[in-house]
Task: structure prediction
Amino acid sequence: MMMERRRVFVLLASAAIGGANVLQASPTGNQGQSSQVHVEWVAEVLKRMQTVKPGMTRRTLLTVFTTQGGLFTGVQRTFVSRDCPYFKVDVEFQAVGRPNRDENGRVTLVEGNEDIIVKISTPYLQFSVMD
Result:
């Protein structure tokens, strides 16, 4: 199941990145090579994204991903790849040095670099969210 999801992701990502090239006439006839370069790039980005695992810190995650706009809390947020903002993951954290919720039961908005990743989704494709 995971390998099939990965194949679908790579296929979709390469189509998103290289799709425009298919529609353009290639004066040099190097379309096959260009498409292969895109597929290899997507595979490398996917490998880099998959190095981030539960148990790691937010600081480590931020070496591969960056934040995006949209709704979030201090313990749950969507991150985008530093290589392409259309590659995303949803992450849940355990707050470190503070509670996940305040005294009224509201989820904290405070984020800390030492927060621990509890759960990270499979990478997916989505257009950017603008605030």
Q: What stands out?
A: Helices lie at 2-23, 31-49, 58-61. Residues 2-23 form the longest helix (22 residues). DSSP finds three helices and five strands in the chain.
